[in-house]
Queue: 2 jobs
Job 1
Amino acid sequence: MSKFRSGVLYGQELLDVYNDAKEVGYALPGVNAVGTSTVNAIMETAARVQSPVIVQLSFGGGQFYAGKSLANDKLQASALGCLSAAHHVDMVAESYGVPVIMHTDHCSLKNIAWVDQLIEYQERYYEKHGRPLFSSHMLDLSEESLEQNVEICEKYLKRLDAIDIGLEIELGITGGEEDGVDNSEVDSSKLYTHPSEVFYAYERLSKISPNFTVAAAFGNVHGVYKPGNVKLSVEILKNSQNFVADEIGASGSKPVSFVFHGGSGSSQEDIRKSIDYGVIKMNLDTDMQWAFNAGVRDYYKDYAGYLQTQIGNPDGDDVPNKKYYDPRKVLRQAEEYFVTRLEESFADLNCVKRNC
């Protein structure tokens, strides 16, 4: 019997998964998608390892999903693409037999119109269907003051909670560059969150709803870098968890659900420590992009002699090559490489057979 139902989870179901992750000791991969090939590969992997998974899109990923030729001056294409992806997952997740948490990634204040459009659509959808399309959304207001960050998040959590959607917030800044947001030159002190900041946010938001997660910075950096260049301080999560637990009179518990951003290239030791300290989700993007790219690269290398002309290959001058240049062939190999790499991440996160 499965722990969690197949399909897109929301409301209390979301909390149930995160609480189970903290209790058992695993984290879910939050995998960035940009099209149906990556979305389907994410669910295919989750089905193989028999575990829940998080499918997430950034505003850039949403725009690509809808089509780069569409106008996006008001982030309308970004919103449209995310909604299209959510409808796709809603329709097929049950057939894959996997529980899916549908999520959107970093949304800064300057891109807030993107999430506003997603919420407005889902408020209408919820009224009609009694459920949302997304499980959660992320607001990354780490560039604002702590007070403004939390104040805005409070307003959004109230609105999201009314339609059974969770909220992910960011405290401190994830370094590096991703999706056009460049924090590579940020002051290093901003890459490390203080436990008192975590408690400040926890205390304020928990008065509204328990359905929120915290991406606290502990030296995380987007992208992959030479070993030694990224200085992670995973103990920040432990100290923050203990600080919050003590402040609320629940010493020894794990009241905060943490999110690990910038996890590409991290050691399994740091990943497992972070899970011990209450991380229930780790974002995956850079490594997955590389895996997909490697599948395309190797396909064109392996079948180079069959991809130069429509007719004529090493098997004969008159032999057609259609079955080799059919785009489904190269895309499928890219998906297979993606799945293989994602299986490794599920194992690293101790997230195998977690829906059994």
Note: Residues 7-348 form a domain with the TIM Barrel fold (CATH 3.20.20.70).
Job 2
Amino acid sequence: MNKRLITIGFLILAFAIVVKLVVTIGKNIKVDDFHKASIVFVLDSSASNQSMLADEIRYVKSLCSILDPEDAIKILKVDDSSYLIYEGSPGDTSGISKAINSYIKNDGQEKGTAYALAMKKAVEHSLTMKKEGYNAAIVVLGDLDPSYASMGINWATFPDNIKKTKQYIPELAMMFVYAPPEQLDLVKSKLNPVLGETKLIIANSANADKASRRFLTAIGR
């Protein structure tokens, strides 16, 4: 009987030691923290971009479908002005569709495409979301043609502005899709030195879908 009690005692002691070791190891294992992301979509609905708009809308929805429910998205419409048409969860499929269907309309009367204003707003939204604990990313869908130079991105100053923004959002990622090759080459030459290859994703209409995996990597997934 004594031997049996001694054996049980040893087993209990051994179990306690194992549990303690597991707990200690568990506390010391460093697990990568999940960081929720904020993605600002800049969606070109101008007359010059109408031929690509349906594909771009499909891409927005496709990218939202692979984001996490804890992520947050904002959609900025851009034509001759730019304003927010949706903010919420990427999983709100009906809300996203309703916003796009309600506001992405074009009467052909706008004068130019306000890319400069849209990018300014996208950066401002990203800074706000960073303060709320989100990793920030900006996705630009359009041909990048402002029609009027004064409304386009000023590529002489924009890289420096993004460099300054990275002081507050070090993990900032940007993706440009559906622009023509010459515009994408310009984006790459200007922003690659600032963001680096892992945080800058560019894709034309033919390889936009393949860029999604790179985008997830860029936001830490």
Note: Helices lie at 2-28, 50-65, 93-103, 115-131, 158-165, 181-195, 211-218.
